[in-house]
Write a structure and sequence with these properties.
160 residues; 22% helix; alpha+beta; 9 strands; nine-stranded antiparallel sheet
């Protein structure tokens, strides 16, 4: 899209206080901070950098979140699968509605990608549009490279 700039940022930004809800804290005094790095124009997606000091808390996800652990050590327990220790390089997806117990063992820093789900009727229309586009692409056969290369000089003369 011409004229639509990409957004460039760094994870080494100044973080602001982002307190964990008091009734979610189970042990210790975890202190969380974050900073917004980007946000989509329609407001359905954003990227944050987040860090937290040691402690234990329950996190209630009201939107989808994917995280990439940059530093530190945590143990995540969703009450379904066995608890899992994670560290730098690990990536985790949390669906909207999940409740996960976090044990921050050492100061943790993560990159977080959030996506708000579209209302069902809109989501259905978007999925149908993508499906139709995919079917059309299968029906329209690409022009072989040899034919395209032979046609290029003719097309260039026609544009003049």
């Amino acid at each position: 899209m011409p004229g639509t700039p990409i957004v460039h940022g760094r994870t080494s930004v100044e973080l602001r206080s982002s307190p964990i809800q008091q009734d979610w804290i189970l042990e210790g005094n975890p202190v969380a901070r974050n900073a917004m790095l980007s946000r989509s124009q329609d407001g359905t997606a954003c990227t944050l950098i987040w860090d937290c000091t040691p402690g234990k808390f329950e996190w209630h996800y009201n939107i989808e979140e994917t995280i990439h652990i940059l530093e530190g050590s945590i143990v995540l327990d969703d009450g379904v699968a066995p608890a899992r220790r994670l560290g730098p390089g690990d990536v985790v997806f949390f669906p909207a509605g999940a409740v996960v117990r976090w044990t921050v063992e050492t100061h943790v820093r993560k990159l977080a990608f959030f996506r708000r789900q579209l209302p069902k009727p809109i989501g259905t229309v978007v999925r149908m549009a993508f499906s139709a586009r995919s079917r059309l692409r299968r029906l329209i056969k690409p022009v072989p490279a040899v034919i395209a290369a032979e046609a290029a000089p003719v097309l260039q003369r026609a544009e003049v």
